[in-house]
Amino acid sequence: MIPLEEAVTARLESHGERFEVLVDPDAALEIKRGEFEGELEDVIAAEDVFENASRGDRPAETALEEVFGTTDPLEIIPQVIKDGEIQITAEQRREMQEQKHKQLVNRITRNAVNPQMDNAPHPPERIESALEETDFRVDPMEPVETQVDEALDALRPVIPIRFDEVTVAVQVPADYAGSAQAKIRQFGELEREEWQNDGGWVGVLTFPAGMQNEFYDLVNEHTSGEAETRIIKDEDDISMR
Length: 241
Prior knowledge:
By secondary structure, this protein is α+β, with helices and mostly antiparallel strands. 37% of the residues lie in helices and 24% in strands. The strands form three sheets. The protein has a five-stranded antiparallel β-sheet with strand order 8-9-7-10-11. α1 packs across α3 and α7 (174-184) packs antiparallel against α8 (212-223). The longest helix is centred in the middle third of the chain and has 22 residues, at 90-111. The protein is elongated and about 75 Å long. It starts with 7 loop residues before the first strand and ends with a strand. 26% of the residues are buried.
């Protein structure tokens, strides 16, 4: 279950009765769209159905039977969410909006590059600053994934930006290969790898272009800066970093 202060109220009015449940806001939206794949017990603040959640009042069992055909809260809660309305306070809306805004900036930062600067990643501060110059505002009631394209459309007149992937070859010396390759190979999609005769390791990975600095930091951390990396632009064009 989630803490009460993190829950929002989903409310359904039917047959002259009111039914309320307390649920995580993101999970409520997923349930409403039929996209929820988790465990209901993990995203509710109470395994109960209320007539008035703020007062703790509960509806009569006869009312539950009449409207839902059951008195089992775990069967009723999804129905209330799907057929009812999600109620949020101004404070909850502000907090949700701030959280979604951070998630959006993080997603854009990890995937976007500056095509005018040799596809260098944009710092998150630059994304933040550019968004402030636009009319785009995060919708706290919509998933971040569905808002990325609209945010990019708003950003393009302000900064040069595009989503891209990068493919990088990394050569790890034998002294670090055993432990370093295990960390590096998890960073992106491992296209190919090769163990060299001297015990060194070479891997080729593809990952969102905005994560290049994070990747190089990881490589340097686990190889004491002794690894070599190459950005692979195409089969015939390999440039040393």
